[in-house]
Every structure is written in structure tokens, then in C-alpha cells.
Amino acid sequence: MSVMRLESYAAGAWVAPSGDLKPLRSAVTGDVVAELGSQKLDFAGMADHARQVGGPALRAMTFHDRAFAIKALAQYLNDRREALYELSYETGATKSDSMIDIDGGIGTLFVYSSKARRELPDDHVYVDGALEQLSRSGNFVGQHVATPLQGVAVHINAFNFPVWGMLEKLAPTLIAGVPAIVKPASATAWLAEACFRMIVESGLFPEGAVQFIAGSTGDLLDRLTGQDVVSFTGSASTASMLRANPKIIGNSVRFVAEQDSLNASVLGPDAAPGTPEFDAFIKEVHREMTAKAGQKCTAVRRIFVPDAHRDAVTDALIARLEKTVVGNPRSEGVRMGALASLAQRDDVFEKVGILATEARRVFGDPDAFSVTDADAGAGAFVPPMLFSCDDPDGAQKLHSVEAFGPVSTIMPYRDLGHALKLANRGEGSLVASVFTHDPAVARQAVLEAGAFHGRLYFANRDTGKEATGHGSPLPHMVHGGPGRAGGGEELGGVRGVMHYMQRTAIQASPDLIAGITNRYVAGASTEEKEPHPFRLTFGELEPGRTLWAGPREVTLADIEHFAEFTGDTFYAHMDEEAAAANPFFPGRVAHGYLILSFAAGMFVEAAPGPVLANYGLDNLRFMKPVSPGDTLKVRLTVKQKTRRKDEYGEVRWDVGVYNQEGEQVAAYELLTMNAM
């Protein structure tokens, strides 16, 4: 492999490194694989390019436009991942490790694209929550909305996941409509740069949407404003240093931090040896110790087990660790590769020495271990190391010092409350896991430990092979944690997008709210005219387009026929005396679903046309009983439109059913698919 000279991508051009070049070495062989320079980058120009070129271009796209671009990027990278695998071996990662990083990052793009197209509008304004009535008459209402920040997102990523770490930040940022400047960790920057080149070569995002720094961020952070965001993954010490930047403090720059943490795994008191939960626990802890050579911010560092099962857990873990082959990640049979760098190896050995002051090593000797098809001295290899602590209550370092490698410590507990208190001693983690089949154990864990952990992962015989694992952050769920873990959040579906948007409270008349949000709201003006709205295509319909239909009288015969036909003979529909005794009814009343059926019969246009399907309704409420002899009318109003495919889109209709007195008896939202 020829030595790569890593370049930055600034203001639409690749910039070659200059000055004294720093060698980046293979974690496996120690050979130089890349060189990193101190490019003469115009950081002010990069920030301006993002704000003035990339931002406006992204904001001109709708959420769905940006989501479709993310999906196309995922497909583009997926077709080229073999080249990334090859580069990933030099970071010390095995093929399975690389799949966590590369495939995991691509998968995150797919999930974000899908969720954005389902949960965000095909529009430029996101409506957050329900309409708030601020006046008695309803002429003054409130609505929370979110719009993209008009700045730049600076992404500072860690060395252990050079692809996933970059993509999981880019997905919500770009969907929000905010341009990004990406700064990878130097130790594995060649892999991040290769993936970023693919992003640029794809041509899927407008100029200025993404930029890349190979090397130092220079004075970039000094140029940030209140419209900008810093999203950081790495050590607590580096996060503290960055947070202290006067511009970040003075301008209230959003700072999202995801830091390493002393994550815990608890073997539940019910999970005795021989149970499926015990076996799953042993398998999972072993995997978390050895996957990515333990270089995961979510890896299990502290293992809490019932005192009675301590020896059984120790023996079972050692049996698995003894079979773990360490060596060249390209070689057949190797299950654990190297750490990312020699510096990282030295740091792990230093931290292991500290841990050894409070626990004894029961497996793994850093001074005597073998590697397969590699030179243990030249590469950044370490053996998996398991410690055991007799006094977890008296320990201090075990709850505060992290060896960022394949290192974990077994600690006994007396009862579940004791275990949870020990888990909380980490002062905030990204994840804690509990292996139990007892719902009471799970509930107690949430109540007593939830405040200290960003994610609680429960596994047992029921979750089986479908469970993703203790150490796998999912794009659907929040990734982050309190205290030591940084106090920030990433991912979490639309929650992650909101980190790059401003939530604004809008107070106005219903008509103005409807105009701002591009959706009908209660009290806004409507328009009723020919033809019937079901004769109009998706593109021809506009929010506020309305049809009034009816009247239709509800008779006692209708109620009895509906009851007999459906089998719903609930007493409120069939027994006058019993119904009258009910505080909610004046006597026998119509079925709610009879009212819906009559409403559909009144507004439906029967002939084939642009309406392709009725696929459900939301937010159904029955507001007032309908008695025999009442006369109903129905209002059908276009509330919102959402493009789904090139051939059709979703129309959400606001439906109100009213009696002869003009009182609303039912409300719901009808969903149809309409041809374009």
C-alpha cells in the first residue's frame, strides 16, 4: 500500500497537506500508511462558505429532498464499501469490526432517510407538537415550529469509528438543512478521508454542504456564533478544553458531547448459572470486551454479578477469552485485532496499572501473550484482560478510570439495590445493561439507575438473537448520557435532527399559523368549491380545500341494524333503561363507528379517480352522543400533504361530524393516498 497524503476539502476544493508531515502508522505492522499535514486552511473562509453557500442551498431543499439525498448516499457508499474494508484493516479492525463501523454508518443513513420521510413534512418548516388555543374565541393560537439553524455544524469525531462516527452525525445535520465541517481523529483519518471523498464524488449534496479538515481545526472554533453547533465525540478532558473556548461560552454555541464512560453490565439476581440469561450475559460481556479490541465508548468496563455467582461468571468468561485469537485482522481465525495506535496501547497499559491497585488480574498478561501473523511489538496489540475486585464499595479507581481497550472488571453485589448503586458510581454512562427475566428487576433498574445512564439495555431469553447488543447505539434511540458521558445526545431519530434546528413559539391567528406551517389548523379559513376534492390530484389539492356533505338522519332502525350486522350489541345502543342510567348518555345512542360510516357515505366520491386508497385514520374522538332522530353533516378539509413516491402522495384530511345544532360529535384525521 502506497503512503496516502491526506487532504482537506475546503470551499469546494481539495487542499494538499503542507509543512512538516505527521506519519500515521498501521496499527498492525507499524508501517507508515498515511501522512497528515498542517494545511494552510482559511478557516474563516470555510465557515463563511458553509453559511453563505451551503446553508442556503440546503435550506432551499425540503426535509424530504434532503432525506432522499441521504438515502442515495447510503446506496452509493454501500456499493463501494469493499475499498473501505481494505483501509480499515490498517486501523487494527477485523472484518466484523469494520462492518460495525462501515455497515453501521451506512445503515444509519438508511434509517435516518426513512424516518425523516415518515416523520418530517415534505416542507421547510417542522411543526412541533399540537396547536395551543391561547384565547377563548380561538382567534389567537400558538404553535411551536422548528427551522434550520443558519450557521455551520462542526463535527469533531473519535478515532475508534472513523466511518460510523462521521455518518451518524452527518445524517441528522444534513436532514436538518445545516452544512457541516468534519474533523476526524488523526489516528485513523485515512479511513475517514476515503469515505468523505466518496461523499464528495457522489455529487448528491449542494456545494458547501460538507467540508473536511485533515489535521487541526486551527482557529475555527474562535469563529463560531450562536447559529453554529459543535458535535464532539472523544475524551472528557478534550471536551472540557473545547467547551471552555471563550467564543463557545460567550455566543452560547450549542455543544453536543458524547464522551467515553464506565459502562456497566448487571447479571440479574434471577439469572443463575444454567438459565438463558446467564448464558446470554457471558456471551455479551465477552463480545463487548473484544469487539473493536474493546475500543468502544459503549463497551462493558464494570461487570456486576451476584456474589454467589462470581466464580461461575469468572470461569465462564475465562473459558471464552482463552479461545479469543488475537492478531493480524486479515488472517483467518483472528477474532480480535490491534488497538488503533501505539499511543493508545501505551495508554491502556498505563490505565491497567492503575486498575491493578484495586483489583487482581485473573486473565490476560500484557507481558506474555501471543499474536497470530503479526509482530506484537511492532503493532498495537494487547491481550484481553479480565480483573476481579473483592471490595467494589471501597474501590475508587475502578469507578473513575477507564482503560480504553479489551479490559473489564468483575465486581460482586449483595442485592439488586447494591448492584444499581455500584453501577451509578460511574457518575454517568452511555449505557448500562441488565440481564433478567423478571419485570420487577427491570422496573427497579429503571427507577433507581435510569437517571445515571443514557440507555438501559435489557436482555433475556425473549429478546434472543433479535437483540442488537449492549454496545450498539441505534439511530432510532438516543445515544448519549449524563455526567461523565458528556451530558449530550445524538441520534434518537428526529430528536437528533432537532439539535440542528431552532424551536420557535409562534403566536398568531389561525390563518397565519396555517400559512406558516402550510397545513390547515382549527379556525383557519377554508375554501369550498367544485369539483369534489376527491376528483383532484395530489398536486391540485391545497390545505384548506373543504367539502361539506350531508345531511343524514340517524334512525333507531339504523342503530339496531348496525348492532345486528356487526355483533356490537353493547347496552348503550340496545337497552334504553340501562343507557339512560349511564351518566354519559341520554338514552340509546348510535355506535361511534356507525357515525364514521355515515360520514364516509356522505363525503365519498364513488367513481375511480385520484384517490387510490384510504389507509387509516388518526386522533379519533367521539365528542357528543348521537341519539335516534339526530341529523348529521360532515366537513372534510385538506389538512396536510406529504409526498411519498413519484406516483402518489399522502393527504391528511381534517374531518368533523356535526349534529343539527351545529355541535361537533366526532373528529378525526383521514389518511388517503392520492395520485400525483
Automatic annotation (TrEMBL):
Describe the location of the MaoC-like domain by residue ranges.
546-651
Which terms are listed as keywords in the entry?
Answer: Oxidoreductase
CDD domains reported in the protein's UniProt record: ALDH_MaoC-N
Q: Which domain of life does the protein's organism represent?
A: Bacteria
Q: Which InterPro entries match?
A: Ald_DH/histidinol_DH, Ald_DH_C, Ald_DH_N, Aldehyde_DH_dom, HotDog_dom_sf, MaoC-like_dom, PaaN-DH
Domain called Aldehyde dehydrogenase: residue spans: 15-503
In Pfam terms, one family for this protein is: Aldedh
Give the protein name, as stated in the record.
Phenylacetic acid degradation bifunctional protein PaaZ
Name its species: Nitratireductor rhodophyticola
> Mind giving the lineage of the organism this protein is from?
Bacteria, Pseudomonadati, Pseudomonadota, Alphaproteobacteria, Hyphomicrobiales
